[in-house]
Amino acid sequence: MAAQLHPEEESASSWPLPPSQYIDKYTDEAVAAGTAPKPPACIVSEPYSMFGSPFFPNESIIRSLESQRVRRLYPQNYEHKKELKKLNHSILTSFLDLLDILVKAPDSEKRTEKIDDIGLLFINMHHLINEYRQHQARETIKVMMTVQKKQRIDITQRFQQQLEKVKESLKQNQSAATAADVKPSLALLHQLSNISDATEQSEADTAAVDDVDEQTLLNLDRLMCTIVDKIDN
Question: For residue 224, what are the CA distances in angstroms to 78, 190, 211, 215, 219?
């Protein structure tokens, strides 16, 4: 026999919705006006190390190249798409140069220098790509919420369709039940009418029979009285 769950466990969801009293404070108007609550402060106030790299609590989510002691190959003010194309072109050119070095002088120091240059190009490209992560996260959440909204709308529409079907079925059953109730009532009224007519006819016949018997008895009495008078005379 399966164990009975508590009411709290039955109503709990694996992925509960965020509290409405909290998310209602982060409307577009509230965020634009600056009245939305600020995010909670970081609980860590001192630098820490993770995977062998130092991290500082007050740093931005995406650390700058300078804080990682990596040389920047693009200007401070830049366009991501343009700089990524330039870095991609530089990587392809450096790779061809590396192949040329490997063919002509594989033991040359230029081979190591070119490998380091290609690694620096990849780090800069990877950093530019990482700067799109926040935008990607927002777009991902937007798509997820859009899908959830569509699913809930579909569920609501299907529920509404089922509700309309149930209402129509109940209406048809009610009409059929009403018609079934009317037919016996009409038949019963017809039967009562027949019984009433038969009763009235029976009463009339009985009254007629009573009248005939009384008249007959009066005639017989008169005849007997006449016979008795004649006998006495």
Answer: 148, 51, 20, 14, 9
